[in-house]
Amino acid sequence: MRSNKKQLEEEINQAIEEDKRIQQAFKNRDWSEIKSSDSWTIFKTMSEFVEGFEKLAKIGPCVTIFGSARVKSSHAYYKKAEEIAYQLVKHGYGVITGGGPGIMEAGNRGANRAGGKSVGLNIYLPHEQKGNPYIDPDKLITFDYFFVRKVMFVKYSQGFIVMPGGFGTLDELTEALTLIQTKKIARFPIVMVGKKFWSGMLDWIRKVLVAEKMIEESDLELINVVDTPEEAVKVIDDFYSKYLLSPNF
To answer: Does the residue 193 lie in any domain?
Structure first.
């Protein structure tokens, strides 16, 4: 009974705090306040771009690994992501992740174990996500803005390994596909790992998006779906046996 009462109190307090944040966000501000706030945002954004460009331009060819932050180290997805990262390093690539726990930690862990470049592009979040311990100390960058961080992923990755994940993983996947489809960036390999996990989404894309001509059937060629670390790394290697490594912008 006490446990339920405590949980109810916590939920009420969270709702009150959320309401305060919403009111603060929508409070009336005069023009000078808006202008000052916008100017500060511009300079903060610029500083994040500059730091990211300066650090990542020196790293060399890398592959980004995306996936759920909620996966524990005992999970099969974690172990598979770690092995993919390990093999990528052995094939000459560095590894970039979002810098947090779960699949991100697995990617950095595999790269670190193989003695390769282990990069973490962390983000400030309400629950205070911290960089995982397997990132090279000089290759950890923490961002305030998701859109700046996403530019860094795309600009400095020669391929995306997309492990099972949630909304954040889907966001990165669909943005990369959109940018390649619209030729805003150069094509690079996108590898979705876990045929069973991704099958429902891919069926929907074929049966709905393609059928209703929202995308072309040829757009599906931008996606590679595999199950094993060996298959994932082979897709990256096969792609770059035909094309020289080059910047994506």
So the answer is: yes
CATH assignment at residue 118: 3.40.50.450
Whole-model pTM: value is: 0.82
User: Is residue 135 situated within a structural domain?
Assistant: yes
Residue 16 burial (C-beta neighbours within 10 Å; 0-12, 13-18, 19+) = exposed
Per-residue pLDDT tens over the stretch 16-67? 777 766 666 656 666 556 556 677 788 889 999 999 999 998 898 999 999 9
- 172-184 pLDDT, tens digit per residue, is 999 999 999 999 9
Number of structural domains the chain divides into:
1
Determine phi and psi for 171, rounding to 5 degrees. -60, -50
3-state secondary structure the chain: CHHHHHHHHHHHHHHHHHHHHHHHHCCCCCHHHHHHHHHHHHHHHHHHHHHHHHHHCCCCCEEEEECCCCCCCCCHHHHHHHHHHHHHHHCCCEEEECCCCCHHHHHHHHHHHCCCCEEEEEECCCCCCCCCCCCCHHHEEEECCHHHHHHHHHHCCCCEEECCCCHHHHHHHHHHHHHHHCCCCCCCCEEEECHHHHHHHHHHHHHHHHCCCCCCHHHHHHEEEECCHHHHHHHHHHHHHHCCCCCCC
Helices 103-113 and 76-90, packing angle to 10 deg: 40
